Amino acid sequence: MFVVVGVSGGIAAYKTVQVVRALVTNGHEVHVVPTEDALRFVGTTTWEAISRHPVTTSVHDDVAEVRHVALGTQADLVIVAPATANTLAKMAAGISDNLLGVTLLATTAPVVVAPAMHTAMWDHAATQANIATLRERGIRIVGPADGPLTGGDSGPGRMVEPDEIVAAALAAAGAVDVVGAPASDLADLRVAVSTGGTREPIDPVRYLGNRSSGKQGVAVALAAADRGAYVHLVAAHVEGTVLDRALHHPRIAVERALTAAEMDASMRAAAGEADVVVMAAAVADFSVPEVSDVKIRKEDGTLTLDLIENPDILAGLVRDRRPAQTLVGFAAETAADEAELRERGIRKRARKGVDLLAVNRVGWTQGFESGENAVLFVDASDEVTARASGTKRAVADALWDAVLRLR
Ligand code: C5P
């Protein structure tokens, strides 16, 4: 494929070197189009060496070959990574005062954009309006991820990891050679995935919830769909824009289920048609049996809530499993060390009766909300059969590798 990689002026440009490298290694012809500002972070020499093609920022080079239009018209795929708030604004307005702007106007190829900026800039109404405009035009937005930012702050704004950008871009272009995994190894598999944290109502304005962001479950759904599966994604509460890519994926159907009871009904129905079921949702273990119709008022300084235990959805799915169906659970454990985590995982896998359990450590500062994860996989051999750490997408791909080994 003829791939144009646009780079705008953010520190994350150093990570885009990996994107270009991965595409070149996979046999694609890659042309890098940096903005002037991008060259302050990574210079022409690096881009030329990695892409093996000349690099220019100017529309006035190679005028005889009409290079400024040729790049856009020849492209099968255009990636912009990192996309700064400024470049996103220019894209939304169709401004073409540099080679990247001209290329983006001249192309009809799929465009995949990986934003990177400070959280305050990402959250600004102007940036959000520009993102909405770009989405409406069919441009795929991947990320930004949530995590530490340059300068010590933390929040949404980090560019997603290179492997995720490459996977999203190749999927958008309909290519099959996603780096690290053949894109079609789950072809035609029917998959049901749950994600997010359920919320159990107390009264019209309050609920019992948990800190699950939904990122890991959504990554599991996206990985499966990018590898060819048809995915029914049942989502409880998820953070911010976490569901966005799934909502636009041609092989993912998203259904919302906000309480444990709704999740139970939705997952039973979804599992009835699935070859593989992954319960990645954080389901409330307890709910309030009598939800108040009116907002509970503070009267005597204390409030006692009676809670009843919710049915274990996964246990029900295991009981009613279809022939040859593979069932996967997640377990978040507050273990002291890896040995304890392993022991707990092995015991829980057996108790739940699932084929595979992904076990991760959680604590006040670990496991939730971040873009990264570290898990052990335990199967019916009562051993840790695989480990995975890194982006939640990398963990998701490792999960599907483990599922394939079992099937
Ligand atoms: O027992 P524990 O809650 O740690 O088990 C976690 C696994 O069980 C997850 O896969 C979760 O989605 C699932 N679960 C469930 N129904 C519940 C509680 C948890 O299906 N009520």
Structural domain count:
2
Q: And the CATH topology of the largest domain? A: Rossmann fold
Choose one word for the global shape.
Answer: globular
- The count of DSSP E runs of length 2 or more, i.e. the number of strands, is 19
Termini Cα gap? 33 Å
Question: Main sheet, how many strands, which sense, barrel?
Answer: 8 strands, mixed
Which hetero ligands occur in this complex? cytidine-5'-monophosphate
Fourth-tier CATH superfamily name of the largest domain: CoaB-like
CATH class of the largest domain: Alpha Beta
Provide a count of the helices.
14
Q: Record the strand order, biggest sheet.
A: 12-11-8-13-16-17-18-19
The average pLDDT score comes to 91
Spans of at least 5 consecutive residues with low confidence: 176-182
The portion of residues assigned to helices is: 25-40%
Structural class: alpha/beta
DSSP strand content: 15-25%
Rg on CA atoms, Å = 23 Å
Architecture of the largest domain in CATH?
A: 3-Layer(aba) Sandwich
